Amino acid sequence: MNPQVSNKTAVIHHDLHLHYSLSGIGEITLLFVHGAFLDETIWNAQVDYFSSSYQVVTLDLAAHGKSGNNRSTWTIEQFGQDVITLLKVLQLKNVILIGHSMGADAILEAAVRYPQSIIGFIAVDTFKNAGTPLPEEFQQQVQQIEEQLKRDFANTSENYARTGLLSPSTPKAITERIVKAYRTAYEPMAIELARETSYYYERERELLQQLPFKIYLIQVNNRPTNTEALDQYAAKSYELMEMKGTSHFPMIENPREMNELLGTAITQITKSKNNNEMLQFIEQEE
Fold first, then answer.
1. Which of 12, 93, 159, 165 to pair with 184, CA 20 to 30 A apart?
2. φ, ψ of residue 172 in degrees (nearest 5)
């Protein structure tokens, strides 16, 4: 089945319903992609802030939010195809991709495989050890964690969220929201994705070296970023922008600072686009 528009808030690709929301008007489109087990509403504060100046699109990846889950396999490559499908069906132009956590790998897939519509790339609290394998002790735990997820998905998933993504200092409302999302995630997708993310570093490394865009990287300062890995693998360079936070979810914990940093990155990307267009015009005139 060819992709088609349905009710202006969904596309159908290979019989799978992909939900999206669109707001605002502008020559530049901001396409926000959430991380694992979350949904488009994680970006509500950003939609409210930017839709007065830009066209803003948010997407529920397959098996997240209001999107369908009728797939037999679950890979980050497929999530990247979800993004590409939306770009094609909506015929989006001048797109700045913005991805959080696993969503940054999904937009990485899209940006390398379908760069025609894209002018910028922003990653949020991710690539902290870009293209780097997990430490050996954690690799040995991958199979054990998978078995725990199969035996007791909700509690195992909650424990990961509390110990790996949140902290005792994270505001209670945010903790409750994230814990609920992790406990109720679609289990077949979540278990397979947990396995794949443990080994995805090789493909991440490969794609980062092919990415034709500078990476604007907004990181929460609760954990350090391995800049040596970025120096090695980010083909078109990167700019690191840090912000305060206690959790992996800066868009809801500190939306004001998040929006300011996003605005800075968007402005730089737009200026770069305009400069490139001016140079192309001058070259044509000559």
1. 12
2. -60, -45
Looking at residue 239, its amino acid is E
The pLDDT of residue 140: 67
CA dihedral 231, 273, 112, 222 (to 10 degrees): 50
Residue 107, amino acid: I
Domains located in the chain, CATH noted = 4-133+200-285 (3.40.50.1820)
Residue 104 to residue 100: CA distance in whole angstroms: 5
Q: Which residues pair with 118 in a beta bridge?
A: 95
Copy the structure tokens of residue 258: 């998040």
* Selection from 223, 227, 221, 251 nearest residue 239 by Cα: 227
The alpha carbons of the chain give a radius of gyration, in whole angstroms, of 19
Q: What is the mean pLDDT of each run of 10 residues along the chain (286 residues)?
A: 45 81 95 98 97 96 95 94 95 97 98 97 97 77 86 96 96 98 97 90 97 98 96 95 97 98 97 68 52
Spatial separation of the C-alpha atoms in residues 247 and 245, rounded to whole Å: 6
Query: Can you give the three-state secondary structure of 122-173, one letter per residue?
Result: EEECCCCCCCCCCCHHHHCCHHHHHHHHHHCHHHHHHHHHHHHHCCCCCCHH
What does the alpha-carbon distance between residue 253 and residue 244 come to, in Å, rounded to a whole number?
9
Tokens of 32: 């926000």
